User: Fold these one by one.
Assistant:
Number 1:
Amino acid sequence: MTKTTTPVEPTPLASTTPAGRAGISLYRCQMLAYNLVAVAGRLLRGQPHDAPGEHLDDYLRLGWLRWDAEGARLRLTPEGAKVCSSAA
């Protein structure tokens, strides 16, 4: 009696990374990580409007920024802080 197994399709690498799940290319993700330090500084100074809007959308999708409980301010997440410390 032989047991046959059904081959399992490999999961594409892009869908196993936060960037891939967010639909963001690796190149763009690296560029965003590089610029996150400056964006975090703008957030601390209360100047998020100085960052390009499409960047903010990507930071939110990646989970590096989030809206505070009141939805009034953007905050750096713990994951975003890790990205900042590795990019600096």
Number 2:
Amino acid sequence: MSDLHLEVGQHYKTFIIPRAAPYLVLAGDIGCLRNYAGRVTIIGCTLWSYIPKEYQLWVRMKVADFSRINDWTVENHNTEHLQDVQWLQQEIHNIFLKKIGVT
């Protein structure tokens, strides 16, 4: 997780992150990553959030990005999300292959 915008509001006080891996990196502008050379592989991308169909109208009206960024739509946003997910899956697969000696 990164770019949490902790400076905005207190809504993260109740934010629950379900455990899905042995480690969680809080990257971005909230800390410094160091002393992990050789033990940790860090990959990353924007990973736009996916906006479900039932929320698209509300998000389109309430999130300034969709009115202030030329040609940026909920559809573009969701397409970017899917591309990011596919990229992450491929990178994780490549890391696994490298780890087991398949290149």
Number 3:
Amino acid sequence: MNPPALPSPSPGARSPHQRVGTILAVRRFSVARRCFPPPQAPPAVRGWFAQGLVPAVTIVFGVLGVSFFGVLGVSPRTVDAATPQSGPESKVQPPLAEGDEDAGTTGSNAGRKGPNIVFILADDLGYGDLGCYGQEKIQTPNIDRLAAEGMRFTQFYCGAPVCAPSRCVLLTGKHLGHAAIRDNSEVQPEGQLPLPAEETTLGELLQRAGYRTAAVGKWGLGPPGSSGDPNRQGFDLFFGYNCQRHAHNYYPTYLYRNAERIALDNPPFAAHQKFPADADPRDPQAFARYSGKDYAPDLMLDEALRFIRDNRDRPFFLYFASTIPHLALQVPETSLAEYLGRFPETPYLGDKGYLPHRAPRACLAAMISHLDRQVGRIMETLEELGLADDTLVMFSSDNGPPEDVGGADTRFFASNGPWRGFKGSVFEGGVRVPFIARWPGRVPAGSVSGHIGIFYDVLPTLMEAVQRPTPSDCDGISFLPTLLGKEQPRRHEFILYEFYGYGGQQAVRMGRWKGIRLNCYQKPEGPLMLFDLETDPKETTDIAAAHPDVVARLEEILRTEHRDHPYWDFREKRRPPRPAAAAR
């Protein structure tokens, strides 16, 4: 699809110095909402207010030449406080069931039915990149503390081996045989294939449960104005990179707040380039051209912390989708200094994509530690506001680490842990990811779980945590009992991947058995490899010939769990149109 033309960053784009005005506008919005009757007020009261008082006051202000809503800094669409709007027009939601009114409009945060929810999603962080998962060269004390105070999972799987489909699975609760987005698929001039309007996301479900919702970081599920716009997919606030290609540069010239471009104090430069032949790679200043003043992850953290503070008195859901440590290798000098000189280094000159860096190993380590400090800031803010005990925090990564691209030496750091494969692969190293959950007094501190979970389980788990029903088309199973240290009554017979990137790949895990099919576009009926993860967790030996009955069952699962889609079919070689240069 072709998204509508997007505005240029200038003229009219706001500088970072104009953010104060935005903050004040948001606060005026909050004040205005408090002026409206809550949704649980009798219909007569709300009708009188909306149809009588507001029009009357508006007329008076109009006679005076003043906009009533302009004084408040809000749009007339905010008169109905039960349906908050932000950015492009949101999807029409079905009415709430009786007793399901917005729980946070009148009471305090302490009176809600479920916890606040913070889901922190790292980008291309490997299973082995964290201290609590065995990393010895990179310091991650805050995430390690999160694990020490909560539950760490050892058999948890992301939604897909690359960014956009993994996020689609996470937010919709559907596996890749059913998901609307099954690979990274680009649209122009920016953005990725949009989520369809009919999808119901985790954000929408929590909105209906009375939560304020924010997506901060990288989106990748539809450009502004499309059906996949985050404001149309259940998020009251979006701030960050809408487009994944745009996120390849940590010093961009703009970010989005909802559908509006916010100008940043950074010089424009291409996110993929080689080091100039006439420059000296031994000179640190020669690499200064690949940085700027406004480091996007820090601006996004500031926005996330502001969202938490602004919503301390009502239930909130923060989806913090960090871009770290996805390439390019870029980090503030203050963070880089922590690792300079620790490792043998060869300057990366950009010959394998993204941007050059004088100390690539130090930079990758520094980026992960920078993310770790951001996690610490989020936890400190929750504790400072007295919200930590009432907040369920989850941490994970969208897929495994990259291999041999952009200067990231993930083999040096053993980023994929003990597993075979990297990002873009359905072998364990591409899809088994760190997963940590903390909820003081409920999730047993210092616990480790071998429960087999996957991203499409997150939605039903959170629905159970907030005491709301899960949509009937969700493929996931709630693992809330496991989180609470109880017996898990239901478990998956299988988890699966139907991935349309990297030649097309399928994988299905059923207990100890894992079947994998590669090159699905060329050979959609090709042989299924079989591995026994109990005796061969590194997937080194194909034993399909010895277990034809297991192979037959796994093939049956892959057939029956495929849902036909106009874009996704190996046999018909279907996939969305793509530009010549696609992002991964």
